[in-house]
Structures are given as C-alpha cells and as structure tokens.
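We now fix the convention by which a protein and its fold are recorded. Here is one such record, which you should read through line by line:

>
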Amino acid sequence: MQLETLNLVFPSVKNSELYGRYLTNSHIEKCIEKLPKSRISTLGFSVESRPIYGIKYGKGSIRILLWSQMHGNESTSTKALFDCFNLFEKENELGKNILQRCTLMFIPILNPDGAEKYTRVNANKIDLNRDAQNLSQPESKVLRQVYEDFKPDYCFNLHGQRTIFSSGDTNNVATLSFLSPAEDEERSLTANRKEAMAIISQISKFLQPEIPNGIGRYDDGFNLNCVGDTFQRFGIPTILYEAGHYHEDYQREEVRRLMFIALMKGLDVITTSTNTNHYDDYFNIPENSKCFYDIIIRNTKLNLTDDGLIDIAIQYQEKLINGQVHFIPVVQEISKLQNKFGHKEIDAHGVLLETDNNSTLTIGNEIDFVLLDNKKTSLIP
C-alpha cells in the first residue's frame, strides 16, 4: 500500500454528505441507506432509544472490531469510516486484499445520544470509556456483546482529541495520536501489546511524509475501567486512534483524510505483516504533551501603567447552537507563556490590548475580538 495511491483515491471516496464536527445518527443514516442491506444491522439501542448500527465488510478469517464516537463529540473518525466504506464498495484493489483476508465489524456511532447533544458523555452523563467494568449503560453492554459475539482478533478504538496536544514538549501539534493500552499496573509488554505497538509503529512511519513530527503517543497509565485497557487485558491487540488538530482545520477535514489513511494502513499491516519485530520503534514516537492553545497574543499590556509585557492564551470552547458547532474564544491564561505555543500567534509588539467595552480582561472571559493599537483583531476561526 502506497501513501501516494491513498491520497489519489481519497477524493473519489470521500463521503460528501458528511462534513464538519457535528455528526449524528440522522446524518449517517442517509449514508447507511445507500449501503447493501446485508451489511447493516441494529446492534442495540441507546439510553434514549436511538439505534446503534453495525456495518460488516469482508469474508476473511482475521476479525477486526472498530468503533467510533464512544464520545459523542468526537466525529472525525466516523467520517473517515464512511470514506473507507465507499472505497470498499468500489471494490478498489486497495481494499480487495483486506476484505479477502479480514472480516470487519464497524460501529460508526456507539454513543448516538451524546452525538445528538454534542457531548462526550451519554444521556445518563456517563463516560462510556470509563464503564468497561461496571457495564452500567446500554451502549457499554452493546459493545461488550458485540465483542463477545464477534470474537475479534484485533480492536480499533477510534477517538478525537483536543487542540491542546503536542507531539512531545515541542511546537509540533499532535495531528494524530496512538496508544497500545496497558493491561496491568506494571504496563507489561505482553505479546498482544507488542503486536499493537508494532502496527502503530508502521502507521507512524507511513504517515511521516504527510505530517512529519506530527504524531504523538498517549500515556499508557493503566485504568481497567477503560475499554481499551480491558480488551487488551483480554489478550486482544487493541489500538487507540486519536484524531487531533491540523493547521487551521477546525472542521477536521484534513485530519479526516489522514485518519482514513491511518485506518487503511492499520488494516493493511494486519493483513500483510503482523509480527512484533519492531515493536520498540513505538517508544520513539514522542509522548503527548499539552503545549498548545488555540491563540496566543504575545507581548501586550492590559494597562498603560504596566511595567512588563504579558501573553494572553485563548482556547476555543465548542458549543452546539442550532445544529452547528460554534467555536467560542475564552481567555484561558494571562502570564508569560515561554513554553506554550499557539495554533495562531499574534504579536502585539508592546501595544495596549483593549476590549470593545473597555472591561477588564480576566480568565474565563468569552471574547470575539480585541483591539490592539485601536485596530480590531478577530479571534473567531
């Protein structure tokens, strides 16, 4: 599988009906209706009785379970899954070998109530990724039942991450991140963990030309309440995918393309070379840090009498308003931010920062624009 080939085919398989950050059952149902009915099943229902869909491809002996939107507001990988479905429907050579050797079970939206409200949690305000032991929620029970019935050889746990994450303590944003979850407190390097690490290593190497130094590795602190840690403990190689940020891509359409590539490469690695010879390359992937804000205004003053210059950190708060996700700029930090970076940086060159009503700027303020030297500077992406 070649990176250039995946990039060439992507525009023809990108699902044009799915766009942006807000993705619900009503959005994907329009796409599901166009798929062969034999591929589709209703696996169960959410707290608020929304269906949880399963979509199956392939006829091979290697069984892979993939689920997305366990957190309802993490939709990027769901878009990428439907791009993969379009590729599989075209019977493209890229997917042919995968479908011959693998049976793939997809759950595109595990948390449809959270997706509807654009929240991380489900309708009972439970984080499904902390419910792997209690299985207190219907969505958690659906996933566990599918796991037990399908009996996967591999699991892909698909998520999205905030814009704050960097690849190491650097000015490199973590556009994609991965994790081979621990399965015990000692973080033992068991055979299945090593296999997951080896797959991640090959995905990372494959994507370096696209996002050099833009891939991070999540901390592998053990938490048995997490689904990935639990499935890894069951002895099944489990890979956590995280869709992060790309320059000016707040709708995550570029990240969607990169996630599509990462998914296809992960499946390709499993079908062609599932050995653990180079699992230790996984540890060369920089661990994620929290080095980013959405905007940093540097070298400014809040009062004319101030002796020194300060920096203002702005982070977007995502709010669902009338069916659209809006990015609300909120003041996060006011200090010198030497070891922090902004996805957008504004150098005030020492001038006074003012608000539209001359109010005092404080942490927690929602603010759409500022005045620098009496010039209006928008903070909306």
